Amino acid sequence: MTVSLGHAVWRALAGALVVAIAAGAAAQTSIALPPAQTGGGKPLMQALAERHSTRSFAAQALPPQVLANLLWSAFGVNRPASAGMGGRTAPSAHDQQEIDVYLMVADGSFRYIAKPPHRLERVGTADLRAGADSQGLARAAPLTLLYVADDRRMTDRDDESTRRFYAAVDAGAIVQNVYLFCASEQLATVAFISVHRERLAAALGLASTQRIVLAQAVGYPKERS
Ligand SMILES: Cc1cc2nc3c(=O)[nH]c(=O)nc-3n(C[C@H](O)[C@H](O)[C@H](O)COP(=O)(O)O)c2cc1C
Fold it and tell me: Which ligand 1 atom sits nearest the alpha carbon of residue 175?
């Protein structure tokens, strides 16, 4: 199956890397990502010194390698030999790894599958960015990440407010990974809570156990220094 991803970058991804998996009548699309390049980047102290929020973005999408590096930095698997799916680049309470990273781009929405070899799974074909939040941040950026907690991965020992607390803290660790990656790569980013959760949850077909915790817009800065 050929997948039309619209934008040139996504077309490049589709041409080189798309694997289409027919699932009954519906077709699910899985998009391979290049392995993350884990050897580069600015020194940590320099990235920390340069970390900041930016709210205006150039239209240019992220190249596949930058996207792969970004997602791995966010919540990729950095210790595949560890139990379960492996250790991750961000910590999580009880190592529950309950946050899923969703992507909204011009060509649709995707879920990041971190288990090596990491990849994207298409969730929908509609561009959900316009109207996704009250500030127009998602519309302004080529990519918005959504951090979605799934109660199914959280223990019943914890009550609802504890689970929400853990999910917020765990999403915050991922947010900071992305901020530092963006500082290292001179990308623009801002975390935001002003997201229309219910509307997006419906559009993404999230389960009743899933909650959008936080969003983060990413792109190249409008004014490049
Ligand atoms: C949990 C969280 C929620 C945020 N929500 C928003 C938001 O809804 N809208 C926004 O413009 N910025 C939001 N921000 C970005 C903050 O406003 C920003 O980090 C703060 O002003 C400090 O600026 P700096 O990141 O450049 O240091 C959020 C940041 C965090 C960590």
Answer: 31
10 Å CB burial of residue 78 (0-12, 13-18, 19+) is middle
Among protein residues, the one with the nearest Cα to ligand 1's atom 11 is: 192
Residues 10-52: tens digit of each pLDDT: 544 543 333 333 333 234 599 999 999 999 899 999 999 999 9
DSSP the chain: ------SHHHHHHHHHHEEEEEETTEEEEEEE-PPP--S-S--HHHHHHH------B-SPPPPHHHHHHHHHHHH-EEETTSSTT-EESS--GGG---EEEEEEETTEEEEEE-SSSPEEEEEESS---TTSBTTSHHHHSSEEEEEEEEGGGS-TTS-HHHHHHHHHHHHHHHHHHHHHHHHHHT-EEEEE--B-HHHHHHHHT--TTEEEEEEEEEE-BSS--
**pTM for this entry:** 0.89
**Are the CB atoms for 85 and 98 separated by under 8 Å?**
no
| Residue 169 CB less than 6 A away from ligand 1 | no
